[in-house]
UniProtKB/TrEMBL annotation:
A Pfam match: 3HCDH_N
UniProt-recorded name of the protein: 3-hydroxyacyl-CoA dehydrogenase NAD-binding domain-containing protein
Keywords from the UniProt entry: Fatty acid metabolism, Isomerase, Lipid degradation, Lipid metabolism, Lyase, Multifunctional enzyme, NAD, Oxidoreductase, Peroxisome
Catalytic activity: a (3S)-3-hydroxyacyl-CoA + NAD(+) = a 3-oxoacyl-CoA + NADH + H(+)
3-hydroxyacyl-CoA dehydrogenase NAD binding domain boundaries: 299-474
PROSITE patterns named among the record's database cross-references: ENOYL_COA_HYDRATASE
Protein's UniProt keywords contain Oxidoreductase: yes
Pathway: Lipid metabolism; fatty acid beta-oxidation
Annotated InterPro entries: 3-OHacyl-CoA_DH_NAD-bd (IPR006176), 3HC_DH_C (IPR006108), 6-PGluconate_DH-like_C_sf (IPR008927), ClpP/crotonase-like_dom_sf (IPR029045), Enoyl-CoA_hyd/isom_CS (IPR018376), Enoyl-CoA_hydra/iso (IPR001753), NAD(P)-bd_dom_sf (IPR036291)
Species in which this protein is naturally found: Achromobacter denitrificans
Family listed: Belongs to the enoyl-CoA hydratase/isomerase family.
Statement: the UniProt record of this protein carries the keyword Lyase: yes
Domain 3-hydroxyacyl-CoA dehydrogenase C-terminal: 479-572, 608-693
Length: 702
């Protein structure tokens, strides 16, 4: 077997079959040198009489993760993925794609243009471009529906979902699933079969019933999108591309797709989503340098409340053995019921099957005695948010846990340094701040107290990755990154409410901005009683000069805790329904204004968004200045994944850069004339604005 090793493409010949290996590890992103070399190799193969067929594969376990996202910011250079796909499709010599690892985006589009596709059962195939505000620009919107039918292609492309090899076979996306070790041989056999004139049998997707089904699915999707408050340009254009695939010849469809793709690349939504993608990857790198994570297989979860149950489910889903600890049999029983409840919902929605449920439950045990934690590699406590309660739990852990076990607290704001100092092994103590529901929410703040060992931090990051979470390193302070910032912009919303905007207008303005739920609707969902208890606890330490809006307390005094009590800021006459504005709440707000001598003034929706964002950005800059967050991208990753900040805007720091830091600072300075303490500008923001700089520049390694 002769091998010609180039930089990005490895070529080898096996009796007339040319194996072209994409060789740009780890993910074979289709950067320009790779595209150029593949183009040259395909052209050379076309002219080489000794080549009868071609097999395209990845050299190191991945086929390709698709386009190199970083290139979209630069001038585009031919050949494009679409040119390569056309070259493959037009090849007089059969081309077979051998798919393993990831075959995503442009990678899958190359495979779609091939004459046959084989793949391993574990390969991940998909067109995830929409998650980056793009659409497949290399023929994917035209070739996928032709291959598997538009009705099946639609959800894959519109949601950017990937499927494994087995599901791809069922869809007709793969022609054969092969053993991973024998993938190349399998592909070569398929290539020879094609040369011998044995075509692959495929279903006919051009029949009128298929076309009608596709058009109906498109119409239903258009209706669904029309009801959404915000739709990406890519989502709308994708539907148009699929329609073109059903109605136009391939050549015209490809041109249509190309134009639509270029519109998406230029969209602000793409820039925001690409920013969020890289922010998450930057945030996800352990700040503990080369420290190796400690092995974790057996985990303890203390507390079977909503948070503990969610954490247990997240861990079981990642293959960990979990022991759930509660103080007595009744509490343990409720904890198990909560876990069962989560699983029942997952089964009902089709996210879990019975076999997986059995697997998960077989790794769950429960105990009331802390001795059951003696073999745990890691323990997360999710007990009542009170320093005395937490330190008592840690004292017990100190006594029973094996040396080297990681002792984590899920506290949202308590001083983890104090918790760590209270036991004999502070180096093993870390904060793992999950967000509710913990089995769903992506954010995991990894809070690093002063004495924590590097390998414990590294373990936190490795665990987050295993759980499918987005980890963000946070320093110790009241609220860490997310809740500290949240507190301030929620206060800004309260101030606006007291000054004249209704909670309904504020919610609506922020929902139009892109939040799925405004702050008052969110408060009703999470339950007003929790915040009320915190405020009462913190009342003695509240600075006397700080403005304090009493509306939330007064709602709670009436027992209006939100959805669970049928009323909060909104009325919920029927369970599960969207709340309705409540005249009594407006009257109560009026009373508060009167009591404070405030004359209500009008806020435009734009005023509301500007103040809310200014408060957020200002506190975020202080969080950076204090070293609580390492870089602006970490704040973006945190707020997008844990606080509902619209992902397509990239994150609040990216938003601030787009708005211009000088403009944001000018807003803050003008608001400071009303309330100098609350609106004290962050020194970092002042400096960046003065220098004409951006938060984005701070993300770059110094
Ligand atoms: N373009 C440029 N860089 C990419 C990339 C892409 N399409 N896909 C991944 N990378 C980079 C990541 O930024 C990361 O770089 P870093 O180490 O410098 O931070 C590195 O490749 C590894 O990626 P990571 O996401 O950490 O690896 P993973 O194994 O967890 O996940 C994927 C692999 C392919 C599932 C994931 O990276 C992904 O979803 N990529 C995007 C795929 C895509 O959308 N393709 C279509 C593009 S239009």
């Amino acid at each position: 077997m002769a091998i010609i090793a180039q930089d990005r493409i490895q070529a080898a010949k096996q009796d007339g079959v040319l194996l072209l290996g994409l060789n740009h590890p780890p993910l074979n992103t289709l950067d320009h040198p790779l595209r150029q070399q593949l183009h040259d190799a395909l052209q050379a193969a076309a002219e080489d009489a000794s080549v009868q067929a071609i097999v395209l594969h990845g050299t190191q376990g991945n086929f390709s993760a698709g386009a190199d996202i970083r290139e979209f910011d630069q001038p585009r250079q031919a050949p494009w993925a679409g040119d390569l796909a056309s070259l493959i499709a037009a090849s007089g010599k059969p081309v077979v794609a051998a798919l393993e690892g990831v075959a995503l985006g442009g990678g899958l589009e190359l495979a779609l243009a091939a004459h046959a596709r084989v793949g391993s059962a574990s390969a991940r195939l998909g067109l995830p471009e929409v998650k980056l505000g793009l659409l497949p620009g290399g023929g994917g919107t035209q070739r996928l529906p032709r291959l598997i039918g538009a009705a099946h292609a639609l959800p894959l492309i519109l949601e950017g979902r990937s499927v494994d090899g087995k599901a791809a076979l069922a869809l007709g996306l793969l022609d054969q699933v092969c053993d991973e070790a024998g993938l190349l041989d399998c592909a070569v056999r398929k290539a020879r079969a094609l040369c011998a004139g044995n075509p692959v049998s495929r279903r006919d997707t051009s029949s009128s019933s298929e076309v009608q089904a596709g058009l109906a699915a498109l119409a239903a999707q258009r209706q669904r999108l029309a009801a959404k408050p915000h739709v990406l340009p890519a989502q709308r254009l994708l539907l148009d591309c699929l329609q073109a695939a059903l109605e136009q010849p391939l050549k015209d469809g490809l041109k249509f797709e190309r134009d639509a793709f270029l519109q998406c690349v230029a969209s602000a939504e793409h820039k925001g989503l690409a920013h969020a993608f890289f922010a998450e990857r930057q945030a996800g790198k352990s700040p503990a340098g080369q420290a190796r994570p400690r092995p974790v297989q057996r985990a303890g979860v203390i507390g079977g409340g909503t948070m503990g149950a969610g954490i247990a489910v997240a861990m079981l889903g990642a293959g960990l053995d979990v022991v759930l600890i509660e103080r007595d049999a009744a509490a343990l029983q409720s904890g198990r019921e909560r876990i069962d409840g989560i699983y029942q919902r997952q089964i009902k929605s089709g996210r879990l099957d019975a076999a997986a449920l059995d697997r998960h439950l077989s790794r769950l045990s429960a105990a009331t005695d802390y001795a059951a934690l003696s073999t745990a590699d890691l323990v997360v406590e999710a007990v009542f948010e009170d320093m005395d309660v937490k330190t008592q739990v840690f004292a017990q852990l100190d006594r029973v846990c094996k040396p080297g076990a990681i002792l984590a607290t899920n506290t949202s704001y308590l001083d983890i340094n104090q918790i760590a100092r209270s036991i004999s092994r502070p180096q093993d103590v870390i904060g793992l701040h999950f967000f509710s529901p913990a089995n769903i929410m992506k954010l995991l703040e990894i809070v690093v107290p002063e004495q924590v060992a590097d390998d414990v931090v590294a373990t936190g990051f490795a665990l987050a990755r295993r759980l499918g979470k987005v980890p963000v390193r946070a320093g110790v302070c009241d609220g860490f990154i997310g809740n500290r910032i949240l507190y301030v912009y929620r206060e800004a919303a309260n101030h606006m409410m007291e000054d004249g905007a209704s909670p309904y207008q504020i919610d609506q303005a922020l929902e139009r901005f892109g939040y799925a739920m405004g702050p008052f609707r969110t408060a009703d969902l999470t339950g007003g009683d929790i915040g009320w208890a915190t405020r009462k606890r913190k009342a003695p330490t509240r600075p006397p000069e700080a403005r304090y809006v009493r509306v939330a307390d007064r709602l709670c005094e009436r027992g209006w805790f939100g959805q669970k009590t049928g009323r909060g800021y909104y009325l919920y006459p029927e369970r599960g329904q969207r709340g309705k504005p409540d005249a009594d709440v407006l009257a109560l707000i009026d009373e508060e204004r009167a009591a404070r001598g405030i004359t209500a003034r009008a806020f435009s929706d734009e005023d509301i968004v500007r103040r809310y964002m200014a408060a957020l950005i200002n506190e975020a800059a202080k969080v950076l200045d204090d070293g609580i967050a390492l870089r602006p991208a970490d704040i973006d990753a945190a707020l997008v994944n844990g606080y509902g900040f619209p992902r397509w805007r990239g994150g609040p720091m990216k938003y601030a850069d787009d708005a211009g830091l000088a403009a944001v600072l000018a807003d803050i300075e003008s608001y400071a004339k009303e309330d100098a303490a609350f609106w004290a500008p962050a020194p970092l923001l002042q400096r960046l604005a003065r220098e004409g700089s951006t938060f984005g520049k701070l993300n770059q390694p110094q």
